[in-house]
């Protein structure tokens, strides 16, 4: 009996399609001296050159590259936040894109990441990365961080995890991450909570998931008119001058970086309570860097018209207050619910 069989090899799986959006930052920085980077200029290297410095990317993903901005992230603006959020949402809504990577400066990365965490309306991966050393420095950390970010964006495990930060082999939740060093390549940590997982040598592993609502489950957008929200700080001998000037300028919201558990100097607290009575949203946060600021109930926060930030830093509390006020959440109970939820 003659028998014959036929078989065909399975077609290779198409590589994920990842959009890389460059905004500038140290990762795109250049210095005249590779051994002395004190005078480097941020954001001068284009996205094509950044990608060319990372061998092996074409084996991980099909790359679509765009230059969104070329700034030092200390100069991040609300208008650029709107532009970036809109572009990310447009790309992730397309069937042609499976994930997004954003290269960013380290100075305001945690703020941009949290803003996108609340305004991106897709479960597809959205990853931010950066560098502490400019591209021309000895042992520049940007290429490996970018490789890991693309690896993470191409991983199915990253879907539905909200906006993530890939830095120094760790995976951080945008809500938790903070810059904790002025110089170290391990500059980003997630105080109290810890990293979500790690990415190394092409392997992605998550140890936990973020529990608070984000992205598709958050009601916020980065479109439209931005309210005016500023940050003031409590410290020994602080005056009322900053609060009074900001109220006179028409501020919509104030975040106070308090001492300890969000405690506020008596004179500053009185000026903030007067601002709250005039309709200014006031949020208590802490300048400490870790821990939480708990709502202290009817006798204090409620009586003064204050909202507590929970575990959000003053800078991320400002991001949430901006979005909440823009969404029409103006009463203290509604704002407190937003801070307790997101």
UniProtKB/TrEMBL annotation:
<feature type="binding site">
    <location>
        <begin position="106"/>
        <end position="107"/>
    </location>
    <ligand>
        <name>substrate</name>
    </ligand>
</feature>
<feature type="domain" description="L-asparaginase N-terminal">
    <location>
        <begin position="17"/>
        <end position="210"/>
    </location>
</feature>
<feature type="active site">
    <location>
        <position position="106"/>
    </location>
</feature>
<dbReference type="Pfam" id="PF17763">
    <property type="entry name" value="Asparaginase_C"/>
</dbReference>
<feature type="domain" description="Asparaginase/glutaminase C-terminal">
    <location>
        <begin position="229"/>
        <end position="339"/>
    </location>
</feature>
<feature type="active site">
    <location>
        <position position="26"/>
    </location>
</feature>
<dbReference type="InterPro" id="IPR020827">
    <property type="entry name" value="Asparaginase/glutaminase_AS1"/>
</dbReference>
<dbReference type="InterPro" id="IPR004550">
    <property type="entry name" value="AsnASE_II"/>
</dbReference>
<dbReference type="InterPro" id="IPR036152">
    <property type="entry name" value="Asp/glu_Ase-like_sf"/>
</dbReference>
<dbReference type="InterPro" id="IPR037152">
    <property type="entry name" value="L-asparaginase_N_sf"/>
</dbReference>
<dbReference type="InterPro" id="IPR040919">
    <property type="entry name" value="Asparaginase_C"/>
</dbReference>
<dbReference type="Pfam" id="PF00710">
    <property type="entry name" value="Asparaginase"/>
</dbReference>
<dbReference type="InterPro" id="IPR027475">
    <property type="entry name" value="Asparaginase/glutaminase_AS2"/>
</dbReference>
<comment type="similarity">
    <text>Belongs to the asparaginase 1 family.</text>
</comment>
<dbReference type="InterPro" id="IPR006034">
    <property type="entry name" value="Asparaginase/glutaminase-like"/>
</dbReference>
<dbReference type="GO" id="GO:0004067">
    <property type="term" value="F:asparaginase activity"/>
</dbReference>
<protein>
    <submittedName>
        <fullName>Type II asparaginase</fullName>
        <ecNumber>3.5.1.1</ecNumber>
    </submittedName>
</protein>
<dbReference type="InterPro" id="IPR027473">
    <property type="entry name" value="L-asparaginase_C"/>
</dbReference>
<keyword id="KW-0378">Hydrolase</keyword>
<dbReference type="InterPro" id="IPR027474">
    <property type="entry name" value="L-asparaginase_N"/>
</dbReference>
<dbReference type="GO" id="GO:0006528">
    <property type="term" value="P:asparagine metabolic process"/>
</dbReference>
<feature type="binding site">
    <location>
        <position position="73"/>
    </location>
    <ligand>
        <name>substrate</name>
    </ligand>
</feature>
<feature type="active site" description="O-isoaspartyl threonine intermediate">
    <location>
        <position position="26"/>
    </location>
</feature>
């Amino acid at each position: 009996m003659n028998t014959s069989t036929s078989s065909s090899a399975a077609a290779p799986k198409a590589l994920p399609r990842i959009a890389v959006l460059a905004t500038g930052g140290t990762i795109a920085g250049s210095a005249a001296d590779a051994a002395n980077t004190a005078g480097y200029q941020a954001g001068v290297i284009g996205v094509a050159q950044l990608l060319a410095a990372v061998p092996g990317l074409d084996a991980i993903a099909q790359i679509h590259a765009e230059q969104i901005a070329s700034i030092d992230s200390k100069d991040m603006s609300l208008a650029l936040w709107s532009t970036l959020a809109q572009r990310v949402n447009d790309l992730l809504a397309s069937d042609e894109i499976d994930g997004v990577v954003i290269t960013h400066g380290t100075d305001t990365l945690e703020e941009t990441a949290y803003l996108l965490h609340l305004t991106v309306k897709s479960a597809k991966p959205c990853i931010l990365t950066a560098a502490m050393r400019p591209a021309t420095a000895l042992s520049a950390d940007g290429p490996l961080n970018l490789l890991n970010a693309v690896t993470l964006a191409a991983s199915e495990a990253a879907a539905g995890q909200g906006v993530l930060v890939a830095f120094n082999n760790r995976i951080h939740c945008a809500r938790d991450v903070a810059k904790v060093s002025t110089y170290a390549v391990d500059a980003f940590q997630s105080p109290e909570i810890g990293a979500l997982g790690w990415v190394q040598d092409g392997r992605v592993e998550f140890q936990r998931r973020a529990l608070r609502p984000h992205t598709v489950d958050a009601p916020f957008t980065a479109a439209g008119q931005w309210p005016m929200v500023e940050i003031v700080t409590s410290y020994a001998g602080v005056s009322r001058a900053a609060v009074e000037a900001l109220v006179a300028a028409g501020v919509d919201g104030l975040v106070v970086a308090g001492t300890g558990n969000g405690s506020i100097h008596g004179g500053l607290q009185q000026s903030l309570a007067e601002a709250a009575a005039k309709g200014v949203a006031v949020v208590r946060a802490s300048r400490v860097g870790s821990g939480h600021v708990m709502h202290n109930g009817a006798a204090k926060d409620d009586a003064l018209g204050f909202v507590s930030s929970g575990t959000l830093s003053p800078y991320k509390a400002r991001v949430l207050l901006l979005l909440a006020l823009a969404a029409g959440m103006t009463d203290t109970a509604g704002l407190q619910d937003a801070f307790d939820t997101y």
